[in-house]
Amino acid sequence: MNEVFEFAWPWAFTLLALPFLVARGLPPVRLRGPSLNLPSFYKVSKTYGAQPRKAAEVKRRSVFSWLILYVIWGCTVTAIAGPQFIAQPELKVKTTRNFLIVADISFSMAQKDWKVEGSSTTRWEALKRVMKDFIEERTGDRMGLLFFGTNAYIQAPFTTDLQTVNQLLDEADVGMAGQMTHIGKAVVKGIELFDRDTLEAKVMLVLTDGIDAGTEIMPLDAAQMALEDSIVIYTVGIGKPDNTGQGLDERTLQDIAELTNGRYFRAEDAEDLERIYEEIDLLEPMEFEEEEQRPITLLYMYPLGLALILLLTSTFIAQFWKRMGSVKSNSKGNA
User: Fold this and answer.
1) CA–CA separation, 122 vs 110, rounded Å?
2) What is the 3-state secondary structure of 222-267?
3) Which of 85, 178, 198, 237 could be 149's S-S partner, Cβ–Cβ 3.0 to 4.6 Å?
4) What pLDDT, in 10s, does the model give residues 42-85?
5) CB 119 within 8 A of CB 43
6) pTM value?
7) Rounded Cα gap, residues 232 and 22, in angstroms
């Protein structure tokens, strides 16, 4: 991640001149020290004709002492200026669409003719395994689940909590919605769910392995209603069409997708389904937006800590030399 170093309040460096202004503008501090009283002082000065006068001792620091103090002040001002690293704005996934998965859980989905990792499994169990990965990767969408058979019901309303969506997917099983396949009824139920939400982008993914057996709502009539609501429908046919009239109705699924500006796919196994999901990811890509607040790493503690260390060190050294001076004076006095 590229980071830029800068000061939050660079104007604080004007405070560097403050010690010079104080030293030049304010008078020296007068401190009273111990004194020795001589009763005959004035008599002696009068005898010798000397005029006593007031005096003061100006204590001066060494250049090294002044330099240390100014370095400490400079570190303090630097901390006040707020040094920091500011990273480049990060991109985050933007929630832009409602994505509804409409899955067929009629009895035909219980056929054990698919393989996942070399093991035979039902179409529904294979579909659930692959669908979990697909859901987890759609972090920019508000996902919903709708299952259908003879009836259609909502398993998960639109939410960004994809972990919960996957959990609710796990809880569904074949036959919960009846044994028939009513595609038209499922699409209309999905349209009702979209109507309750505010996001304009609406995508429906219909997965089924059968032929519509409904008489109330025809699939193409439901698709026309979806088109009027600007809903794009992608259809996935599970398995292979046959000539018995009991298998996959590709023609209807193709017409639904074409009418709503979507696409039709056919999945004969789990690998086909994974490829289909990858293509849908390309057709409905995630949208990103810049994070308004860029990541900031504060650095003020480093110059502030250096100032504290220098202050404590200089104080310790000064006290040490003062103590050493007192020891030497006492030694000379005793001698």
Assistant:
1) 5
2) HHHHHHHCCEEEEEEEECCCCCCCCCCCHHHHHHHHHHCCCCEEEE
3) 178
4) 676 777 666 666 655 555 667 777 888 888 889 999 999 999 98
5) no
6) 0.60
7) 74
